[in-house]
Amino acid sequence: MDVKKSQAVRCLFGTDGVRDVANRGMMTPEMALRLGRAFILFLAERGIPRPRILLGRDTRRSGPMLEAALTSGMVSAGAQVRTLGIIPTPGVSYLLQEGEADGGAVISASHNPAEYNGIKFFDGAGFKLRDEDEAAIEDYLGDPLLDDWRPTGASIGETEPLLGGMDRYVLWLRECDPVGLRDGWTGVFDCAHGAACVPAKALVAGSPSSLRWIGDAPNGLNINEGVGVMHLSALSEEVLRARVPFGVAFDGDADRTLLCDSRGRVLDGDVILWVLARWLHGQGILGSGLVATVMSNLALEEKLQREGIRVFRCPVGDRYVLETMHREGSLLGGEQSGHVILRDWVRTGDGLCTALLFLRACRELEEDVDTLWDRFARYPQKLCNVKVRDRKAVMESPLLRETLGDAEAELKDRGRLLLRPSGTEPLIRVLVEARDVDLMGRVTDRIVQVLESIKG
Fold first, then answer.
1. Which one, of 279, 223, 271, 220, lies nearest residue 251 by Cα?
2. Which residues does the record list as Phosphoserine (modified residue) (predicted)?
């Protein structure tokens, strides 16, 4: 399997922007200001001297603090900043796709707890920046020009709110499944106390939908707390309690979605991709096939191949999903975690759009949501997150290399093993997949024990 990844060297940027505990480390107001200036300098030296920027954020208490700093940095470098307030990350991408600005930024730590925050940048077409672009922005942080380049007078930028941006995003979302909205749904929506709260409710306003809501009361400190895609038991329990056909959960910035059926069983990104790929293939708009990451279950690949649908594998991260989609000519890609990119609709993961199109696909394929979990029949898979001090040192450990070699020899053609450092947290992620549950558990336990003994 040929899994390609950009070789651009980045220190601050991870798999989804710069992220840290807010007001500490890499996510202080001072750093946000410098990142804002570096982003505008990056655009200016590429022929956009006074760029128009869209800026959104999620519901975290630290959001306004970082928004003020990031805006100040961009305006001091000559940018025209239009603020959107609280809005899903894909909402900013959609407005950029519609030609609203030359670039965008979102202040969010996505699925992380409330004490974290982050900054991610978009180009003028609504795509997240490439690795090499983020590496260039990091280079500007150490360039004397960053401090010397000081526009004055009329060359200083301005900031103003962009009114009606959320309304336009919601109107577009309604077009993703107008029949479903007209007929109405009965289910549970979990908004993770995040950016999905307002657009999700606006989406169904005026429709006959009978929805129950959880995670819909953000207070700045409860985003992702016990709810959302990271805590699906809350959704499953509410679906069982309410006796409704399905549930939908989002993360803090609404770029991911996961579902559960009426029995509370989780339908992860692999199941979502399985349904969407067959639906798009039937309409002739799938392109060359589906792009999935190395984390996706082997059952997904086997089932789609039987349908004549190719599956291309790529590293974890929605930017790498999109890169591979471009390279292979695919119009659908995504991750087991619920990041899904439907290229004819969006240019980044969009949880609301994905949920709407999944429900539409189930209806048009005449799928019974309650049968999907059983029919998918995934291979047993175990994922463990091991906390470490130094991800790089752990990954380079000779003891770990020896252990992995032994594990791969034991698995042979009966399963597979993946080990990767988290791009946003001090964790090493271990994934073992095998038909034999005992083998899977034995290999996983051995690797976790070695990681815990090393720590880094």
1. 223
2. 110
Catalytic annotation, residues: 110
Q: Please name which of 200, 197, 149, 170 lies closest in space to residue 40, comparing C-alpha atoms.
A: 149
Contact predicate 120/89, CB 8 Å: yes
- Residue 389 is encoded by which pair of tokens? 């001090």
Classify residue 150 as exposed, middle or buried by CB count within 10 Å of its CB (0-12, 13-18, 19+): exposed
The helix (run of H) or strand (run of E) holding residue 359 is helix 351-364
The alpha carbon of residue 82 and the mean position of all alpha carbons in its chain are separated, in whole angstroms, by 23
Q: What is the DSSP letter of 27?
A: -
Give the residue numbers of the binding site for Mg(2+).
Answer: 110, 251, 253, 255
Mean pLDDT, 10 residues at a time, the chain of 456 residues: 48 91 97 98 94 98 98 98 98 96 98 97 96 94 90 96 97 96 96 98 95 98 98 98 98 98 98 98 97 92 94 91 96 96 96 98 97 93 90 92 93 85 86 91 94 82
Q: Which domains does the chain have, with CATH numbers?
A: 18-163 (3.40.120.10), 168-265 (3.40.120.10), 267-376 (3.40.120.10), 381-454 (3.30.310.50)
Q: What is the pTM assigned to this prediction?
A: 0.88
How far apart (Å, rounded) are the C-alpha atoms in residues 275 and 269?
A: 10
DSSP assignments along 130-170, one per residue:
PHHHHHHHHHHHT-THHHH----GGGS-EEEE-TTHHHHHH
Alpha-carbon gap, residue 149 to 332, rounded angstroms: 42
Which residues is 170 bridged to in the sheet?
none
Q: State the Cα–Cα distance between residues 317 and 352, nearest whole angstrom.
A: 19
Annotated binding site: 110, 251, 253, 255
Report how far residue 317's alpha carbon sits from residue 211's, in angstroms, rounded to the nearest whole number: 31
Tokens representing residue 260 in the block? 């559960």
Residue type, 50: R
